[in-house]
Predict the structure.
Amino acid sequence: FETLREIAEERDISLSAVFRDYVDTLVAHDGQVQVVPEHELTGGSATETASPSESFPPNVEVPKSFVREHERLELEAEHLREQLEEYKQYVTKLSQELEEQEAEDVIQLEELDDEAEEEPFRLG
């Protein structure tokens, strides 16, 4: 995933576009994809094994519904991450308020002693 993000940044394209290309390549080659450095593409054995009719990178048509669904899921995931962050902030706020209330509810024994000395009681 990080590698795909780096590729997207290098090529100045969206991560979803890089992911689509990645999935397309995997689907086209039944998951048998070999990573080859660019300098080996021009004079190395990678071009010799490929048939002349195939271009690199291969082009594969994907139904628009697949692309739309992927982009929709990406947006939904981003939205859910934002919601999670908001909920975490809310829980933190509630925890702090609870700690403050608990601190107020604590009665110090010294305070009770001071109150008892101020009001003398008589029995009898």
